[in-house]
Amino acid sequence: MRFALLSTPYENITNGWTVLGARFTLNFFVKGMTIMPNYRRPWRPGATWFFTVTCQHRYLDPPLIKHIDALRDSIQRVRMRHPFHIDAMVVLPDHLHAIWTLPPNDVDFATRWSLIKAGFSRRVPDQVRRSPSQHRRRERSIWQRRFWEHLIRDERDYQRHMDYIHFNPVKHGLAPRAVDWPFSSFHRAVRQGLYSPDWAASPDDDLQAGE
Fold first, then answer.
1. Distance (Å, rounded) from C-alpha 25 to C-alpha 5?
2. Proportion of the chain above pLDDT 70, given as a percent
3. Mind listing the pLDDT tens digit for each residue in 23-34?
4. Strand, coil or helix: what is 113?
């Protein structure tokens, strides 16, 4: 069955947040329990990407869940100025995973992540002293400077990364089932009929996700 989401307001990563005014059109195919986009060629603007973004000092007091409202606000603010679609996302205490689809004629995910990280950092206290290079760059010590990105190649690749994101809290021992972790787009996917609430499949162990 084919259907289109036309001029649909963006939803945020959990609990149905909506950012008004950011709209674009995506075509999707539904096959079983998985949502599959009608892909453009991967080297064109508007492609779909998987990301892993990690805190710099993962052994300290993890800030992402502790300051989840600051992260939500930073994402919302960036999306209003630089629109993008969040296909899936999960936030863990010290890192997050996401799948984004950029608007047509747009390839600049790096600026979006930079703004999200900066907006979050301004609202969260540093846990450690900044290095001289961080002072020169006006960087905080919360985030790792780099992040993992992976260009989604096809429908199977999309499904594998969707499953990886939603299983991640179970993988890290944070929840017994995907549905038990509140900071995940899994709940939105269940409402959309893409997963069953008791879904518990383990993703492909060979998938490289930058953790």
1. 6
2. 64
3. 232 333 333 333
4. helix
Neighbours of 107 (CB within 10 A): 12
Q: Where are the domains of the chain?
A: 2-191
- Three-class secondary structure assignment of 15-66: CCCEECCCCCCEEEEEECCEEEECCCCCCCCCCEEEEEEEECCCCCCCCCCC
pTM of the shown model? 0.71
Q: Give the tens place of pLDDT for each residue, 133-156.
A: 544 555 556 888 888 899 998 889
What are the CA-CA distances from residue 23 to residues 10, 112, 115 (Å)? 6, 17, 20
- Token readout for 175 is 């929840």
Helices (H), the chain: 68-81, 109-122, 132-137, 155-171, 186-191
Q: CATH 3.30.479.30: does it fit domain 2-191?
A: no
Residues composing the chain: 211
